[in-house]
Structure formats: C-alpha cells, structure tokens
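Whiteboard transcription, Tuesday session. T.W. wrote the structure tokens on the left side:
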C-alpha cells in the first residue's frame, strides 16, 4: 500500500474503518475479477463452455470407472455360484440378451 493509505487506527472514524474493512474484503474475495467477467460476457460464456466440457468429461470417465467396478464385483459374485444371487444374475443376463438386436 502507498504511504497515503496508511492510517493510524486510533485516529480513524468508524466510517473510515468500515471503508477500509470493505476494501480488504473486496481484495480478499477478488471482486475486481468478478466485475471483469461480468463486463465481458463473451469471456464469461467461453469460460462456462470450457467448464461444462470438463464436467461432462469428468462425469463420463467417472461413470465408466464406477460401472467397470460394479461389473467386476458382479462377475466375482456370479462366480461364487450362490443360489439366490446366481438365479437373479442369470435372469438379468437373459433380459439383456433379449434386448440385444442380434
């Protein structure tokens, strides 16, 4: 900060203290960056577009990993040949095969 902005805390008025606190909070939360984005809507749209692509890619990768883990666990359970679970899995496989086009 410049020397002209340094103030003695004992000699400041309550209003000036509030203004200084507000200034500190605005710097802390980067209000200038938010106003910059709002004043340039094209950049805001571009950044939101990139964020949407990243979220979509993350969802696709995450769903793939969770599905692969689920199928691996399901295959392990099916190989144990448990009577109730095996009949359920066999029925599930039968329903999937009926829906396949070939």
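and on the right, the sequence the group agreed on:
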């Amino acid at each position: 900060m410049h020397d002209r902005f340094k103030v003695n805390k004992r000699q400041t008025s309550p209003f000036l203290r509030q203004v200084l606190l507000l200034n500190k909070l605005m710097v802390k939360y980067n209000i200038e960056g938010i106003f910059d984005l709002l004043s340039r809507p094209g950049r805001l749209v571009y950044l939101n577009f990139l964020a949407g692509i990243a979220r979509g890619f993350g969802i696709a990768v995450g769903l793939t990993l969770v599905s692969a883990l689920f199928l691996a666990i399901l295959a392990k359970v099916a190989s144990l040949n448990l009577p109730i679970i095996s009949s359920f899995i066999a029925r599930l496989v039968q329903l999937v095969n009926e829906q396949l086009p070939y």
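Someone added at the bottom: The mean pLDDT is 84.
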